[in-house]
Amino acid sequence: MIKAAILGATGYAGAELMRILSCHSGVEISYPASHSYAGSKFSDIYPGMKGVLDMVLREDDIEKAAEEADVIFLSLPAGLASSLVTEKILSSSVVIDLGADFRLHDRAVYEKWYHTEHHGPKLLEKAVYGLPEIHRNEIKGKRLIANPGCYTTCSIMTLYPLVKNGLIETKGIVIDAKSGTSGSGRGEKLGSLYCEVNESIKAYGVTNHRHTPEIEQELSEASGKDIVLQFTPHLVPMNRGILADCYARLVDGVSEEDVRKAYSIYEHEPFVRLVDNPPETRYVKGTNCIDISWRIDKRTGNIIALGAIDNLVKGAAGQAVQNMNIAFGLDETEGLSLGAGSPF
Amino acid sequence: MIKAAILGATGYAGAELMRILSCHSGVEISYPASHSYAGSKFSDIYPGMKGVLDMVLREDDIEKAAEEADVIFLSLPAGLASSLVTEKILSSSVVIDLGADFRLHDRAVYEKWYHTEHHGPKLLEKAVYGLPEIHRNEIKGKRLIANPGCYTTCSIMTLYPLVKNGLIETKGIVIDAKSGTSGSGRGEKLGSLYCEVNESIKAYGVTNHRHTPEIEQELSEASGKDIVLQFTPHLVPMNRGILADCYARLVDGVSEEDVRKAYSIYEHEPFVRLVDNPPETRYVKGTNCIDISWRIDKRTGNIIALGAIDNLVKGAAGQAVQNMNIAFGLDETEGLSLGAGSPF
Amino acid sequence: MIKAAILGATGYAGAELMRILSCHSGVEISYPASHSYAGSKFSDIYPGMKGVLDMVLREDDIEKAAEEADVIFLSLPAGLASSLVTEKILSSSVVIDLGADFRLHDRAVYEKWYHTEHHGPKLLEKAVYGLPEIHRNEIKGKRLIANPGCYTTCSIMTLYPLVKNGLIETKGIVIDAKSGTSGSGRGEKLGSLYCEVNESIKAYGVTNHRHTPEIEQELSEASGKDIVLQFTPHLVPMNRGILADCYARLVDGVSEEDVRKAYSIYEHEPFVRLVDNPPETRYVKGTNCIDISWRIDKRTGNIIALGAIDNLVKGAAGQAVQNMNIAFGLDETEGLSLGAGSPF
Amino acid sequence: MIKAAILGATGYAGAELMRILSCHSGVEISYPASHSYAGSKFSDIYPGMKGVLDMVLREDDIEKAAEEADVIFLSLPAGLASSLVTEKILSSSVVIDLGADFRLHDRAVYEKWYHTEHHGPKLLEKAVYGLPEIHRNEIKGKRLIANPGCYTTCSIMTLYPLVKNGLIETKGIVIDAKSGTSGSGRGEKLGSLYCEVNESIKAYGVTNHRHTPEIEQELSEASGKDIVLQFTPHLVPMNRGILADCYARLVDGVSEEDVRKAYSIYEHEPFVRLVDNPPETRYVKGTNCIDISWRIDKRTGNIIALGAIDNLVKGAAGQAVQNMNIAFGLDETEGLSLGAGSPF
């Protein structure tokens, strides 16, 4: 059994990770930790897990965690992970960071978009960007896995086959993404109140959302060109789900068949479903799947590629487990749901 | 492997059953059937199950189903099951009916509340009321299991320890129950439209809801007295969940300790969680659990017992699988979820 | 023009009051005040009112308010109003308190249920319980009007004709009430977050909710007997609306006709609608109306009376304006909506 | 008093029109009609209007309507209006069509996108596209007003200042729009059921939604160039509201100041609010306002212009009343709300 520590176990992503790991046949949760709730039972904070996860939460002390765990999941506020992870920690445990600290290869880009100093720049080159469908082989040997963001997972995977194969103009890409409210976290903020979110939709972070450079990094790498794109996230009155509408200009002469072939790289991916109808977030809810669909518009010369994920699963905790499964040589789908009930 | 047929696989309860069975280690779905969608792939109707349940739906022909299945689940409109099930069917397959046709022991009561003739009165005595926490031993040998209704499961289980032990006055019981909208089914009715349900709550079936005699039958049997009670259901703008508030007058002299002791009959039940705070439906969502809590009000002399279930799981498909597990001698919890993620 | 001050203008009830008064032909908002947002424009806090209510918010100083206003509305945390209102304030302005401080005639009852000292017990006898349909004549001359609570308005009005006419047993009354989330206010509390409220229903304050004694006071007064009743509130995933299911035992021999006649006292009330079908909260949303319906259950001997209001309008701001209209001799319906759009 | 007929009074847009007109000081509803509910009281279909609109619904006979009304509002399925309106009707009544039949100047474009024959092509040139902020002067003398669609109103008004002033490249415009569910109408369709819409978001009509040519027509006219653009609508789990994110490439050299100046054409428009923060649909709910905001992204060279309306008000019934006010020389804002309560 792999022993797992979770630091930040009571945030929404951390709690989803706890839930998924509780059903994982190869993992034992040895060190569940929470800054705010150390000393409480996990199921007192999440009563839905009563009888399943009644363990007492520990202090979020990474050194103790490293002593008791083979893998440490970090689900912490931005900037914290990079000040906690050290070579020593990595020598004893694999670290999978659900936050942003190790996702951007370029420290300067991080500091510009996050308006904060990076505390562990030397570790950046040891980290792998943990998007398995693109970096599976690199993930295998790594000790430090930067689990991608929710919007970014959805956006990158939806556009990757197109940029990788040079089928779209790299200039002018627009990503209009919509997220459920769990993406805003469990913090007691006015903007997260039921009555402030319900019965409304809004854009936020227009032109400056932090997930932008992450998407650009991965798509630039795939295309070999510097991609600068437009990314706009939105808050939707629902608990879970991300839908990303990706708009791009098709390169002249590209056919439907070319596009179909490009997406066929996902054919054997267990968590990618190529669907005919525009994807709906309810159909991936609770699963680690991404549903992808696309349309070419001959009138405009554009392609519209649409991807849908569950922001807490493929966009966070599920993908972290997928990364763990890869890192430890387990079946990649172990513990991860492939089918969504409906209505849920 | 147990071979299972599902007639009515594309209604909400039927589809949830398909989903649960698809994760069940001891079952193979051999005959999924749908009146409306025969010939389609299940995952075309429920795209969330693409890649998991792509099988083609069959005609809802119970005789063919009986040839190909050890257990037949019926999830059909009221009145249909009683005209389909025969001794011959029962001789080859166990039948678990998610509908109401075999729940009421007294045909006259059925016909009065359902305003329709009963087509198989002779089978009534062969049927068992499939509420495992109360009738587990009777379920074991039976070929025809009447799976309880959603409101009824929640109401009966919440009140059972009190009536069984004579702790409450059997006169004057009030059950005020609230249900998510999936309980209204997948029919294209005006009252089920998003804009007709959202941002509102209402009572319906006041004084005449069909689940009333079912609750009365079971509680009367438990108490040994004829119980006539007030049951009022409500429609709540959410997908899933039932909350039942049960009000009753405590018998003079009954103490907190007496009540605690009465509920301790559930102590070892895998699907019953006795909780301190009032139960919330989100904490049982997707699980086969019932959360139960109670308060004695010394001012009024009442006890308020509160129960919460997921109407599609413990209130329908999950309990049907629990019954199947019992009938076939499997671990009762096999395939059934015990912990609820949150937010979900 | 009546000059109006609002202290606590940026809470949900206060803001609704601002909105209603902005459409009132006889009122000028002369002193809008907010403890948290003094110095900001109202429309910066509530952008939906941009162009309509751009005035700058003042300090919540009741003495200044009294200098500049004929009527002062208080929408403040419990316990604050009773420490602010004085004889001097009342000599210059009519005070309408949307909070609980002056609702209970008996200071001891207040202190028991609110667990706090009452700061202005001498003013209690000067206050009138501002439920116009019951106390209209008393309201007319009063300087201090205690605007009723939301649950209480709905519960009292629904049961009043029955208790007033002695048609129900005063023992054993059960009120099971359901409220939208705006009733929890605009405070940044975990339990008010979108993801904690959405897709769930729960009871709270079981046996000890503070609105209980207020309902009991008014119904006891109406019946001439000491009424002790069971009141259970619930949180529903919707913005607005209260539904109260009131259960009581009919006195022997009472007929449908007796009940109909009792409710006919509301016949000419502009804000009471007697409806045939069970009321739905969406049909009173945004209005100052209460919809009331009832059923007698011959099986149980009970009557179930159902009332629905908008908690922020008839349950708070709208009723406050109705009280102001009465106190100042205006048309009682001025500024108040009578019809609800749907879907809204 | 202007006498008004409404044909199609029980659809969501028609009912909202009924509600708005019921509060309009200069209008009397003389002929409310419904194909499905003729003979019923309006308030039996919309109980929220009980006591306000209890009139009996008539047959939807346009000739009778013309005899009894100065203005006829049509809220009918596509294709019906063009077969009903005649020169004779127009000679006696002003017709305001909330449907699409008279919006597109070019019959061929209509027939291509709507896949149906146009029944009144001769009337097309008599019709004016009723977007007051752009065509106010043309509306004044016209007898046939084509009330714009919901998505189109929001999209056109948001982009108009930019295309009118040549500030954006006319090639490559992307409109990603999101709508509440009332936009799908009151029809009993599977896709409109609560459980099919709730907790999910999806795109639909990708590349082929019928509102596309309407947006292109108006923006092409404003710019003097043939604009072909990408329009993608989405279904959001909320009752009301449209948000349109409009992406375009700024023409080289265009400054923030140029953009600000362009939008200043709306400065004195009563229903346009230029806001700093990204607009949220809740802030226009129930009003006839559009909130518009924009950001220039120097990294990408794009401008993102965002508009938000209430689809049933500015996107349908409210704008129809605005058009009527203009056509009959009334104050343009009469009967129309300018401020949105929140939460609502």
Outline of the structure:
The structure is a homotetramer of 344-residue chains. The first copy, chain A, has 344 residues and is of the alpha/beta class. Chain A has twelve helices and 13 strands.
Describe the structure.
Four copies of one chain form a homotetramer. Chain A has 344 residues and is α/β, with parallel strands linked by helices. Helix content of chain A is 30%, strand content 20%. Chain A contains twelve helices and 13 strands. Chain A has helices at residues 12-22, 42-45, 62-68, 81-84, 87-92, 107-114, 132-140, 150-164, 194-197, 211-223, 256-263, 313-327; strands at 2-7, 27-33, 71-74, 94-97, 127-129, 144-146, 174-179, 202-203, 230-235, 242-249, 272-274, 290-297, 302-309. In chain A, the strands form two sheets. Chain A has a seven-stranded mixed beta sheet with strand order 8-9-7-10-13-12-11. The first copy, chain A, is globular, with a radius of gyration of 19 Å. Chains in contact: A-B, A-C, A-D, B-C, B-D, C-D. Chains A and D meet through strand 7, strand 8, strand 9, strand 10 and strand 12 of A and strand 7, strand 8, strand 9, strand 10 and strand 12 of D. Chains A, B, C, D: Keywords: Amino-acid biosynthesis, Arginine biosynthesis, Cytoplasm, NADP, Oxidoreductase. Chains A, B, C, D: InterPro entries: AGPR, AGPR_AS, AGPR_dimerisation_dom, AGPR_type-1, NAD(P)-bd_dom_sf, Semialdehyde_DH_NAD-bd. Chains A, B, C, D: It is found in: Cytoplasm. Chains A, B, C, D: Belongs to the NAGSA dehydrogenase family. Type 1 subfamily.
